Give the backbone structure.
Amino acid sequence: MKKFRICLFGAGEMASTHAMNLATDARMELAFIVDPSAERAGALAAATGARVVDMDSAFEDASIAAYIIATPPRTHADYLQRAAQTQAHIFCEKPIDHDIGRARACLAALQGRESFVQMGFNRRFDPHFIALKQAIAAGKIGTPEQVLIISRDAEAPPVEGFIHSSGLIKETAVHDYDLIRWLLDDEVAEVYVMADALINPDYLTVGQVDTTTTTIRMARGTHVTVLNSLRAAFGYDQRLEVLGTLGQAAVGNLAQSQLVLSTHQGVTGEKPYFSYFQRYAEAYRAEIMDFAEAVATGRPVTPDATDGLRASEIAEAAMLSVQSKCPIRL
Amino acid sequence: MKKFRICLFGAGEMASTHAMNLATDARMELAFIVDPSAERAGALAAATGARVVDMDSAFEDASIAAYIIATPPRTHADYLQRAAQTQAHIFCEKPIDHDIGRARACLAALQGRESFVQMGFNRRFDPHFIALKQAIAAGKIGTPEQVLIISRDAEAPPVEGFIHSSGLIKETAVHDYDLIRWLLDDEVAEVYVMADALINPDYLTVGQVDTTTTTIRMARGTHVTVLNSLRAAFGYDQRLEVLGTLGQAAVGNLAQSQLVLSTHQGVTGEKPYFSYFQRYAEAYRAEIMDFAEAVATGRPVTPDATDGLRASEIAEAAMLSVQSKCPIRL
Amino acid sequence: MKKFRICLFGAGEMASTHAMNLATDARMELAFIVDPSAERAGALAAATGARVVDMDSAFEDASIAAYIIATPPRTHADYLQRAAQTQAHIFCEKPIDHDIGRARACLAALQGRESFVQMGFNRRFDPHFIALKQAIAAGKIGTPEQVLIISRDAEAPPVEGFIHSSGLIKETAVHDYDLIRWLLDDEVAEVYVMADALINPDYLTVGQVDTTTTTIRMARGTHVTVLNSLRAAFGYDQRLEVLGTLGQAAVGNLAQSQLVLSTHQGVTGEKPYFSYFQRYAEAYRAEIMDFAEAVATGRPVTPDATDGLRASEIAEAAMLSVQSKCPIRL
Amino acid sequence: MKKFRICLFGAGEMASTHAMNLATDARMELAFIVDPSAERAGALAAATGARVVDMDSAFEDASIAAYIIATPPRTHADYLQRAAQTQAHIFCEKPIDHDIGRARACLAALQGRESFVQMGFNRRFDPHFIALKQAIAAGKIGTPEQVLIISRDAEAPPVEGFIHSSGLIKETAVHDYDLIRWLLDDEVAEVYVMADALINPDYLTVGQVDTTTTTIRMARGTHVTVLNSLRAAFGYDQRLEVLGTLGQAAVGNLAQSQLVLSTHQGVTGEKPYFSYFQRYAEAYRAEIMDFAEAVATGRPVTPDATDGLRASEIAEAAMLSVQSKCPIRL
């Protein structure tokens, strides 16, 4: 059986997750790994049977059916543009680029290949959120009116470690901005964000905030609220609920175990999962399986590069709203 | 408006609860209180506007429409028999008598007044259990097959304080034995009980056990399990679930507040209520209101003295099963 | 025992609720009822033993210890100002007046009696919300950072029936604006509201909206989101959650029964209560008991007229935000 | 890297599950598949890269490090005895044999290899039950007093399809009998079973029952109740709870999705998983990984053949109790 040869850029935790998940699809063969750290690349190659190559070799090998870009954000656009010159499928972690101008330029350069570039918005592949979207599609709650997304990390990074981050809005909230477009099949019309450093005011010294409350009006009028925070002390807090004309659909947090202890201290269930690798393990698997299916069948992908740009544009408007202290229309 | 005059035997916590609940029915007038403790009787009389009288006066006053017997169990039969000679309605805390022979004799002496003697099986009036019974009646779960009752006190009494008790089966499980007859509209055919002193082996020194597991086969075949214990460290543990051909109906524990705390220690809800006065507050109110309605309209009551005897007979068989280490047929 | 004589303005559902709850405090005597509908006033008088009088008699009787104003909102200010000329305690349903200018004038006219005028913000007396506030005070979740209030009616009124309403913000959200001040012991610094008619666009024809999303920044920085709607098809949706530095405290919806049915259709619990009279029954009782205690002891009340004005001012800013499409600073 | 060569007996759903799970351990190599159905064996071989061989070849190949027996129960003992003559590790689905005499003889024939024969009691590897056991070990609930196991299939088999089954006790309850030994680190002292055909009386015509209620007293006194049924219409009903001196630990049902719908019909969550392959997917993976670890390191296994016999002996006593209508001591 001829296998589809994959080239992976990156060898960190995200890249490894994709490599391991790919290994369960017998049609796919992880052929190349490209990473500046020879040690890290070598380790992942050893574990997967792939070969470590340099970037040029990776792009020159015409047998590569797909490129997966799981490198630091600032490098995405370069890889993307070069990969787009091949006829291979591309999977790219978000964002295209944190600079909206560069992101737009990159998208323009894709020249018709946009729909063969899958963006790593993993939440779209979470089975729980999919069940919620299907419930809406099945008319279970009527027309959506008011949506609530809660999306908080479990542990805030040290201030110094957050200096070079693109920040809470572009790193985290952007996932929720994409989620809402997908969930409601609708576009964001207007966004207002309140942003503060409530966990630690020192974040302000490096130009960052730790708590944001986003209010969105969709094109069809639906209200959306997104609560983001760098820290929920009880775990990675990922919830979604939609009020519609006929009722409400909601997905709460997930925990590693169902154990409930009842003692004189109360009735206590497990904390939610701590990290996104745990909470979204199934989603990461499903998204790369979906990409593999596109590679194997030659079909376009979803979410694609255009979706990636749209989410970035909402994030850009959100940043602008913080500065202007007013809602921004898109 | 002519009021229905009530005479209350007892002035303890149970008697006071009935008095307070009765006060909210404008048709009823708590006329007399009879209790060996003048102080306790006086206090309750002061709070309710009733008059303290002796037993003979209480029974001789032809204006009394109803007697409520909320005294220690060993005195019930005497009060019952004497009250049954009037035409008044009677409300009697369970049991008729802890001695099954005396209970039977007492019932015989009621001579046709059985259905005007309401027994204090408060669980029948709990709105949650009623909702469950109605769900069964409405066919929501089909025909009952397997029933589970969990009924545990929050705090075990000191060994010495338990010497004169009639014990876990006759004090507590008997409530569940009555509950199951009412819930399933069926009779107990066979009962097997495993009884031990697991909380404190010293209970055995006063002839008591603290943990019982009862298995019942109903006349129509339904399996019933009753888990009783003198102590659930997290609160008064009162649960009921019924598996039927089409599904399951269940009532879990109730707590004073809906507050849920999520911290690094877990996701913690309130403990269940601690006492039966809290957990069954609504049931106590509803049962005495139902009795008042019977008094006001002259109709018979439910559960009546015959139900009281039936529950005692099941408890008697349960005791016998513990001794014989085998199931007992009724 | 000398009783404290109460005069009640109004004889509708709210007034009746207060009357019934007051009846359980033996120190209080409902002396007068004042209502334009002789029939309604007479019925409530008959049920409570009070006397129907006209307004002038009510205010001229020096024996009245407290006035309770449970009439339509437009009449509150007049009653309040007149009652404030006596030395009686006053309980007044919110608002002081829907016109913020009149409300301010009324407060000025109280001349030092503000803290003897209790406003009917019942949510402050809900035992679940109190448990949440106590958990914060006890340091269970650290410093509040992000608060979410969901407050939706179960059933939207017909458009024509909503013409004379002061609307979703002033009728409903104002309760939540007061709640947040009490919960956080902090003032609202800034409010932004997105308001639309999503349930029924015809509401716009009578100048009303049915769905609002309010974003608040408190003086100490805490973010607050309030989701209001005229309709949650599954019941009166009343939830509250607070994320703090150490975790989260939350109160969910309450239902009439704990019954859970598990069938081929899923695992189904009861809907939340349908109306505020059901959901907040305990809160209504507690608030009037607290008022009675203030009357009996002569102490000031909480929330008082100043709190009433504050909540109205936030609502006013919220209305302004809707018009200006920008956040409003208070 | 030298791999450990595995031989798999059986090619049905259980065998396939083991094969797929084994494939994720790079140290293991599925070498042989033995199954009377050439077609089925061939399909699994194709999917896994194994070779189809006959039984004799399988036992004669000295390179085999482990045998996995996932064939119909009546064949287990033969395979076991023959495999035990090699020095290979053995994994055997329960039971050793449904006939207790044959099971005992088989165990005797193992001659010291008992602890290298792992029995397929998958529930011991369920992460939720493990969390519960760890909570007990950590002293979270004190000493266990009263245990409840609910273990019901989702769908009852047709009567004719159940003729050759060893029945509800030996097929299903035996899992729970093993579970309780493991959970409590204690032995069963006494067992009483009530067994009936309540779902369909026709089961009696083929010598089967569909509903059993088992009451167990452990050697250290703990009470255990096991509720088994061939059908819970809402899904595969697998629950476990333990009351101890300090509180309770419980594991409820698991569902495929966290979606909760709130409509006029109630607040509805997903049904529990439908099958054991879904509910115990993680447990099946973990048990075979644990076996692989034993193979790779040469260590003994748990639960072993002795555990297998013990569970069968409890099941045998349970059957006897049904016949004798009395508790049976072990």
User: Anything to note?
Assistant: Residues 33 and 52 of chain C are 5 Å apart (CA to CA).
